[in-house]
Write a structure and sequence with these properties.
Length: 348
């Protein structure tokens, strides 16, 4: 099919932007069990830097707000979302996120593109449904009300699109007001934070600023910095392996672990690799293990780019690690996946 460019400079196929095609295909991949970061890498390879950023904003943002979007959409779909094809439901989510949260997208474009995608993927009936639902949502955008919850915790969980168990824990621990503030902050895109590698912060900062990158101080962690205003992988400092991406919370975990110099460490949930890199600063050897070969590939990319010589990658199920005794184990435990049992298994 012939490819053209829209007036905004975004590549299109038959009138639908490549970024929207990629977004829909990413969600289809996720429904088959592929992890978000792997699905993103799989689908954005042919997009330019601008379209990659736009796609990430759309898909990641929609997933952050999915609980609220589903509640609003269910009220406007006869019989609720459960009766729809899951792919059509995801298209409605993408369209509604553009309408309600992406101010740079004109409402007519959000609706028309979603309707055309629904027609291409599911036929004329689905496109008519998408058109009716999204137009109604657009008309009512200034007076949207969520369905009445069964209890206050459910209402907060739906409004902020967070798991009920987590909201209940936070409300019990910190109260409703502080929980709402935390949930609101958690729903915004986090700044991109990097850590220097093989270079002092001042040198890296000067290189980035010379390349037109906006640099700021990251909270909580010494030497980490926030960056914006450039495509990450196109920066010379990135290609030279002079920094890696790591959220301050992940850095704090490795610092709290206080790994002794010369230790043998197993990072059992290592992808995408930031904590593995940080551990490799002090450990003699780091075993970078992950159950997903696709996710471990990202660790391998980082190892190659940073020229890490003391990291051993391994695809393994952390519940049954094929490892000899080590000095320390780092595990990302997820209560919702019941990984707390894994932590108990690893305790001496």
């Amino acid at each position: 099919m012939a490819q053209s460019h829209s007036s905004s400079g975004t590549a299109t196929r038959g009138g639908i932007t490549d970024a929207r095609f990629a977004s829909a295909d990413m969600l289809a991949d996720i429904r088959t069990g592929l992890l978000l970061d792997a699905a993103f890498d799989r689908r954005v390879g042919l997009l330019d830097a601008r379209d990659r950023r736009w796609t990430q904003e759309l898909v990641y943002g929609m997933l952050r707000r999915r609980g609220r979007l589903d509640a609003l959409l269910s009220d406007r779909v006869r019989g609720g979302l459960a009766r729809l094809d899951p792919d059509l439901t995801d298209l409605l989510r993408l369209g509604s996120y553009q309408l309600l949260y992406m101010g740079s997208v004109p409402p007519y474009a959000a609706i028309a593109q979603t309707v055309e995608l629904a027609k291409r993927r599911h036929g004329i009936g689905a496109s008519k449904l998408a058109n009716a639902v999204l137009r109604r949502l657009d008309r009512e955008r200034d007076a949207l009300v969520l369905p009445a919850p069964n209890d206050p915790i459910e209402g907060i969980a739906t409004e902020y699109s967070h798991p009920r168990w987590l909201v209940a824990r936070w409300v019990a621990r910190w109260g409703e007001d502080d929980t709402r503030a935390l949930l609101e902050a958690n729903n915004h895109e986090a700044p991109l934070v990097i850590r220097p590698w093989g270079v002092v912060r001042e040198q890296l900062e000067a290189m980035l600023e010379a390349a037109g990158v906006q640099v700021g101080d990251a909270p909580l962690v010494r030497d980490s910095m926030t960056i914006s205003g450039a495509a990450l992988t196109e920066l010379g400092a990135f290609q030279q392996g002079l920094f890696f991406v790591q959220d301050p919370a992940a850095t704090l975990v490795t610092q709290y672990a206080a790994i002794p110099a010369g230790a043998l460490v197993a990072d059992l949930c290592s992808a995408p690799g930031g904590k593995t890199v940080e551990l490799s600063r002090v450990a003699k050897t780091v075993i970078a293990a992950d159950a997903s070969a696709a996710r471990l590939a990202r660790v391998l990319e980082t190892m190659t780019r940073l020229e890490l010589g003391n990291v051993i990658p391994m695809v393994t199920d952390a519940r049954f690690p094929a490892l000899a005794p080590v000095d320390a184990v780092l595990v990302d435990a997820d209560k919702e996946r019941d990984d707390e049992r894994l932590v108990q298994m690893l305790m001496p």
